Fold this protein.
Amino acid sequence: MPIHNEGLAKEMEYISKPSEVAHIKGLFEGTDPLMHDIAYNLIVGKHLVVDELTRKALDDGYAAHDVMDDGLIAGMAIVGIKFRDNFIFVPEVLVAARAMKAGMAYIEPILSESGIEPVGTVIMGTVKGDLHDIGKNLCIMMLRGAGFVVHDLGVDTKPDEFIDAIMENEAQILGMSALLTTTMPNMGRTIEAIEEVGLRDAVKVMVGGAPLNQEFADDMGADGYGGNAIACVDLAKVFAGKESVPAAGSD
Ligand code: B12
């Protein structure tokens, strides 16, 4: 079935890599026109329309995971590519994230009742002393869009708070964010604290934030560094055993 929604068909023009064009077209070909409408309105950030269409789809009997995969996540895949390739910037991604949230508000309760296994569980937080959370929130939004359960500890997160959350939620992945050179060392301190309580083998640690790089991540003993929200999702997928290719370190 061709792409029914004209706006969505136009969105395809932002994608240049042939392999990505084929992948994204594959996400939409054969899916319902209503899913195309949901995806398009998510991409352009019309959260009220996404809210209404998601509710309509569920009322009409579409399965929650189909609406999530074929509508919301498929739309977010295009947002991710546009963001990576600088066609859109942080404000547009946040507006798309709000639309994703509007749709997920209907989907999440249904999925948690039906017991569909999440891809993995991730604890995310900005480290102690640091109040920057825009990048962390983008990562969380993309992780949720990719099917991870994410527990967001917010900002100024102390090592003990990370440890408690890992244990309480039996999380396999920890993601830490830092934007200040003065707070970056708190990532290493958190990793040391995780080692001290004997949890280091149970959890993969990924780190990110504008002042970081792979070298710093290696020095502090993290398992991975991601330079953007897409790299964050790639890393998490590798850590959850869902992808065998090494994650992209940075952009
Ligand atoms: C917005 C902002 C603020 C806002 C934060 C609002 C908020 N809710 O986040 C406010 C105004 C509160 C603020 C305060 C301060 N800020 Co400020 N801030 C910024 C600014 C302009 C943008 C940061 C941002 O959001 N970038 C956009 C996001 C999308 O990018 P990102 O965070 O890097 O995230 C991406 C990747 O890094 C990665 N990523 C992020 N986290 C993670 C985690 C994982 C696991 C992975 C894999 C990937 C990943 O993916 C994200 C998405 O692509 C930067 C300058 C800059 N251009 O970076 C200064 C900046 C970070 N701030 C700075 C400073 C100095 C401060 C203050 C100390 C200022 C002051 N004197 O009070 C305070 C500190 C407050 C505190 N204790 O944290 C300096 C830091 C300098 C340094 N070397 O340490 C900067 C660089 C500005 C500058 N050039 O001087 N700030």
